[in-house]
Amino acid sequence: MSKILKTNNPIEQTLKDLLKYLLDSKHVSAVFSLRKVNKKGSVDYGLISDVAKLNEIAPLHPIMPANAGQLLGRFTPMDKPVVAVVRPCEFRAFVELTKREQGQMDNFLFITYSCGGVFLLKDYAEDKIKKKLDGYWDSVKKGEIHESIRNSCKTCEHIAPLNSDIFISLIGEENGKIYLTSDKAEKMLEGFEIETENAEFDSTILDAILKERAAKKKEVFSKINTKDSGLDGLIDIFGKCIGCHGCNTVCPICYCTLCDFDSFNYDYNTPIMEKELTEKGALRLPPDTLFFHLGRLSHMSFSCIGCGMCSDVCPALIPVADVFKKTGEETAGMFDFVAGRDVEEAIPVMIYKEEEFPELGE
Hints:
Layout: E1 3-5, H1 11-24, E2 30-36, E3 43-48, H2 68-72, E4 82-85, H3 88-99, E5 108-113, H4 121-125, H5 133-142, H6 151-154, E6 166-169, E7 177-180, H7 183-188, E8 196-198, H8 207-222, H9 226-238, H10 246-250, H11 270-280, H12 289-300, H13 309-313, H14 320-333
């Protein structure tokens, strides 16, 4: 049974008070959250140990400058846990990293919330979102999709991770509600000034927006038809790639210290180019961009959590996230697997079953 905080204060103020209590009482070593870094509204992720500096945080601001799961995966264990306020896709990314021994759940107290999506980094960089914020929060309260959020957010159906320690219900709520969903959270907040009562989150409040997002996903997926078009279809999609590997850099699941595609194995020096030119008669430059995406796609089939960072940073405007999400859902769906759903849910490619896909024959 979950517990709910009984408060009439604005949700962000209650959240800040909660974080201040955790830090002041020394239950946590630090707070990880989005924060405003200047008066113009610029934000970044901060790790904060000074209670006074919590006045700077903007934990629910609809911007994702990086996937927090990727950042938290680099933390080594601290004396006490870090309390981290993250979006559902960021939490799911960390769950997948934990399965791959790239993070430790015990090192954190996770706070997540039903997410209305984030604005494009391009719009943020061009200072276009300030006028849209009121409309965004109105959409969240009404349980609707805001027109200016990332495409991956418009199609995301995993917006309420109740397996975090604290869950904040924002979508469809006038003010928001804070649920304590783990024993760890209840224990740490025993001395917090706000009373609690037993209550379970009513997931039906999300029905309308989930229906809308499912329809949007169907529309987006219908435009990605590589199954019938084969290699030509993939060339149409990825042919604009300039080889910057930005999608790889921002992906929270690509954790290798040195990606094979960035190693000397793919360093096209003159002898290699001469050999390729002799064999093929023509060579695309930059080389192997399609191979790069196919390689990542094979690695990400069971891993993509649909955060949309890859599409958001692509200078060639390739819908990387849409392709990866569709492929991932089709592949993982054969195993009834959802990336980031549960830290105990084993990755399909790491499980051996004596009988599997018998319809394919021996």
